[in-house]
Amino acid sequence: MNTPDFNAAAAFVAANARVLDRRRFQRLFENGPAGPVRDAVAAYRNDDGGFGHALEPDCRAPGSQPAAVAMALRITDETGAWDEDLVREACDWLAAVAPAEGGAAFVEATLAGWAHAPWWVPEEGHPASLVATGMIAGTLHARGVSHPWLDGATEVMWNRIGKITEPGDYEMFGVLAFLQHVPDRDRAREVFGRVGPLILERNLVTLDPDAPGEVHGVLDFAPEPDSLARTLFDDATVQAHLDHLAQGQKEDGGWTFNWPAWSPAAELDWRGFLTVDALRVLSANGRL
Question: What is the distance in angstroms between the CA of the first residue and the CA of the last residue of the chain?
Fold first, then answer.
């Protein structure tokens, strides 16, 4: 069994990560308080209730974006720093900018003129995104939130998942996040029984933990023992990917990523976030 060098990871976070990820680290691994995490997330909030300012590192624009809302919700959820006021106002913003069908777009046009990753392009017609809608709705359902935006987003997800035959890998992340937490558990399990196997059938996942390039491994789809998609993989495969994650720690103590690094600032922000996240996943699987 491989375990990372925790002290080296802590040193990397202290030296390189955003205040936000330092606070995440303290909360998750040093019994730190929740309040500073909430405050660090709130620093990225806009007056419209949304979040921006590179909270999602690949968009450096100050304007609110669904992906930044998704990250704000995820961080406050996983650290127990949930704030009902921030959440309600974020949902109000989502409702104000929602596509005609409901849900959330992948990218809002407020990034125009600001630095962002080349794949951050607003889609023509402003459609709902399975990625953004699913990730946000999943976290809100996990927390038992009630809001009109979530009602519409839930219908969007059920309708879109019911028709899905050729999902992309990122789309599947949204689908899984939604199915993991939506309250109708019987329906979620039934639907997962149909769409879950597409992860393997459409080669969205690489079973070889050492596969090079911009690929997605088992832990991207099933990071935790109770993940719905964990049932798709045998234990030996899961353990091999956990070994690979532990071995992915770099000499400087941090972890990195396998997609294009388009900006030095975004690269360092991602490395801080992913270092904390690698430790979180390893801990959830009994590897710390």
Answer: 11
pLDDT tens-digit profile, the chain (288 residues): 578 999 999 999 999 999 999 999 999 999 999 999 999 999 999 999 999 999 999 999 999 999 999 999 999 999 999 999 999 999 999 999 999 999 999 999 999 999 999 999 999 999 999 999 999 999 999 999 999 999 999 999 999 999 999 999 999 999 999 999 999 999 999 999 999 999 999 999 999 999 999 999 999 999 999 999 999 999 999 999 999 999 999 999 999 999 999 999 999 999 999 999 999 999 999 999
Question: Which 8-state DSSP code applies to residue 57?
Answer: T
Contacts of 191 by beta carbon, 8 Å cutoff, 6+ apart: 158, 161, 162, 179
Among 67, 25, 30, 57, residue whose Cα is nearest residue 277: 25
Backbone φ and ψ for 4, nearest 5 degrees, come out as -80, 170
What would the two tokens of residue 108 be?
């809002």
Rounded to whole angstroms, the Cα distance separating 170 from 201 reads 15
Q: Give the relative orientation of helices 84-97 and 130-142 as an angle to the nearest 10 degrees.
A: 150
